[in-house]
Amino acid sequence: MQEKPPRKKGETSVTRRQPAQQRSRERLDRILEAAQQLIAEKGSEHVKMSEIAELAEISIGSIYQYFPDKRAIVRTLAELYAAESRRCVREALEAVQNKAQLREAFASLVDQYYEIVRDKPVMRDISSALRSDKELMSIEIAESKACGALLAAAIRRVTPRVESKRVNALAFLIWQMGEETMRLAVAHKRGEGTLLVDAYKQMSLRAIEET
Predict the structure, then answer these.
(1) What segments bear the compositional bias annotation Basic and acidic residues (predicted)?
(2) Average pLDDT in the 96-109 region?
(3) Alpha-carbon distance 176 to 131, whole Å?
(4) 75 against 22, higher pLDDT
(5) What class is the 22-68 domain?
(6) Phi, psi for residue 159 in degrees, rounded to 5
(7) Is the separation of the CB atoms in 193 and 114 below 8 Å?
(8) Domain locations along the chain
């Protein structure tokens, strides 16, 4: 088996190259699909680059053309999930025009996210991986800030006189607490997890109402 090439000085765990041709994009998609399947089955810690290559039906050398290591694959998957999550949040909150709609949209987003995390083991594993790696954790923090900014904008839209700095801080905290709540909830049985998520929703909605 071909060994992993040594990392050059100053090189970080990011995608090596972006595919420009259709064939290259398809190869990248196969790598990510294979990685998701294996991570869901075994957990990211136990997945080897050679296994991803075998499942994707490409050479191990081809993987290293795109990713210097498995950590870079996890990072790419995390960024893809974050982008899709942010799109859903934006669509839901940009339509908000009053407090009732804000409450409904926020509660719905929390419930949807909980179901997605429960139904997709790969997302749970990646979430844990982010928490155990300081560099990767920056992805989660950035996502909480981005989604928090969307929530803050919705709050200001329905409550125009609120103090912006206070609302921005509150919205960021609510979103980051949501990530922690999901990790805790999926670690419990569904009934207990649902109670935790409901408690988080009520606390968050109360804080939003009091702004």
Answers:
(1) 1-11
(2) 96
(3) 12
(4) 75
(5) mainly alpha
(6) -135, 75
(7) yes
(8) 22-68, 74-209
